[in-house]
Amino acid sequence: MNLHFHYLTISGLLISSIAYAQVNIIDQEHVFNNQDHFQLNTSGSIRLQALNFEEYNDSNSSQKARRNGYSAASRIYVNADYQMNAKTHLIAGYQTYINPAKILDWDGHYQKSDQSLDTAQLYFGIQDADLGTLKYGQMNSLYYDVVGIKTDLWNYSPLAQPATWSTQSFYDGTEASRKTLRYEKINDHFNWYAAYMFKDQTYPAANENLQYKRQHGFALATDLKITSYLTWSMAWQRTQSDLISLLNDTEKSYTQDIMGTSLFFLKDSWMIGIGAGLYKNIHPNRQLSLNNNQDVDHFLNTESYGLEYYVGYKLPIDQHIIQSIRPYFMGNHFSYTSGGDFYRKDNGLGVAVRFNKGIGFDYEHLFTQDSFNTPYMDLFRLRYEF
């Protein structure tokens, strides 16, 4: 089971501890008539991160690049907005992960399996002030954008969300999915979302002999704005999929479910996120995957759950080159309830320092307990936001 590194998205609720500054590439009024307006802008984040384990064992001794420093989900966004009239917009969005170390061939700071560029989102749509927004393409899951993002506030997260331990997170819709139709309606006190995932291609579920194929899926999510500073979010997703063994020509159909909820509090200097989720037939049976077992009847016959929390307090500095310092503590707990005996618990302390010119530095110390006997760890991240 591979540990994926995840990301924060730009949303209407800017809950990350940093602020993205959009750079306008094109800003043109009256393109075709007196009412329209076209904007093309970009933003991004370059993140160099290093991990220092207190000791090294079989589960982390091969991670030389992560000790030396590597690109931790650096990314670039490009967004287009064509305003047809006062109410209607045509929109498009693109997000790609970039790996500067791989691009520059910085030896010892990337793994051979790393990609130089990796598209995470690519969609287009229409937005109406009264009717809402309709988008189609590859995009983040509703679960992440509505529930998961409320606790994805620290650097070595989200370790208890469904995408982290899925072997096909960009195909089962736990992290993102292609061929997705999504509707969003933003209101003053209550937002709601719906998405439909169309049939997709087969994809290796654990190795080249075991294939995963999504038949279809749908998701619902809500944001309830209890007050101007407290939001309660909920999401549910169901996916119909097939698991295929190429070795013995067997096939099993699965109904995969994820549901979860989170609370997010942002007032004055306090930022607090708490979330929990239940996952059925999402994560592989770890014992089968480690033994390369092709038993499709049991490979995804699992149930698991996750808990996450974050509490941070921002100290405004605004002196010299330092803008703010935010100490925080955070944690998570992921575990199987059936189909596997794997578990992971993290608790930690961190501090985020923000300087001028989009530069930031983060430090975290994690106390970990899991099935791999992962040692305690220090994380260092240098970031540049533009």
TrEMBL record:
Transmembrane is among the record's keywords: no
Secretion signal span: 1-21
Keywords from the UniProt entry: Signal
Record SUPFAM superfamilies: Porins (SSF56935)
Keyword Signal annotated: yes
Transmembrane segments: none
Name of the protein this chain belongs to: Porin
Species, as recorded: Acinetobacter sichuanensis
